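Hi there. Long-time user, first ticket. I'm pasting a complex I've been working with (about 284 residues overall). I'd like to know whether the download I got is complete or cut off, because the file seemed smaller than I expected. Thanks.
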Amino acid sequence: MRKLNFSKKRDAVLSVLRSTNVHPTAEWIYNRLKTEYPDFSLGTVYRNLSLFKEQGLVVTVATVNGQERYDGVVTAHAHFVCNNCGSIADINCLNDSSGLDERIERLYDCKVDRHSLCFYGVCSNCKHESSAEKAPLNDASV
Amino acid sequence: MRKLNFSKKRDAVLSVLRSTNVHPTAEWIYNRLKTEYPDFSLGTVYRNLSLFKEQGLVVTVATVNGQERYDGVVTAHAHFVCNNCGSIADINCLNDSSGLDERIERLYDCKVDRHSLCFYGVCSNCKHESSAEKAPLNDASV
DNA sequence: TACATAAACAATTATGATTATCGTTTTTTG
DNA sequence: CAAAAAACGATAATCATAATTGTTTATGTA
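Hi, the file is complete. Here it is re-exported in full:
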């Protein structure tokens, strides 16, 4: 596996991703950085996210409304995706999945690198909004 | 929720999906059907899959190499995605996820519609191939 | 520090899956 | 069967992501 060189912008992509828990899209990261670095390219975000993923520094959580969502926290944990506003929350309370990968490996004679556990539904916020206010997915909700 | 009318081709899409366990792409279904119905449109496959999904007759499993993969079996079960050949297998041996959705609902004050559990790794077939033979993803492996 | 090499960059273009449009055909309903 | 509604094929549009290109920036060595 290739070793990545240092670059200010590359670091910035990883920093932004690590500084948030919204599990953003590539575009969201781009928008955050183009204010700081006026010459920033969306391609740079995609390129580096995909390199980071290759290196195991970043993980993809789910595709929501056709856009990939990224997470800078690579320790195993589950996620909750709100079908209404598109927000993604971490689920850290499930520690009973230990040994699951090994069990699958034994039963199916395969090699398991990881698993993804994702719950889909309506988040607490949206649940308590009046249904008339249910906002369509937008940038704000990432 | 809208009730769907009958149409021969609509039925064919669902039948093809239900008759296989490869968790195909829309294109795969299209290729199967255009031999039987020479005038078949890929748009019809997409249109109906998305209607079926809306009706709960079909479920999307994962996006592999940029293509959505569909399943006609809607009872809760997990999947294994091979990162090498792109094949998807059913994992039916995990019955310990019962009550999981309710647990999340209580802990996070949300509404859980479903959850998706997906293992990623190298399938038994690919594991036993010599590494030189590791085929890139192609149509055949869908 | 200066040079050579490799990697990273912005900008642009290309790709390719999915969705929308629209005029025609099929299905439903009465 | 006729009118209305829905589904269709063909095609064009969208839009997220990937690849390309020429330039700039890091890195390693002398």
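A couple of notes from our side: The radius of gyration of chain B is 17 Å. Chain B is about 35% helix and 25% strand.
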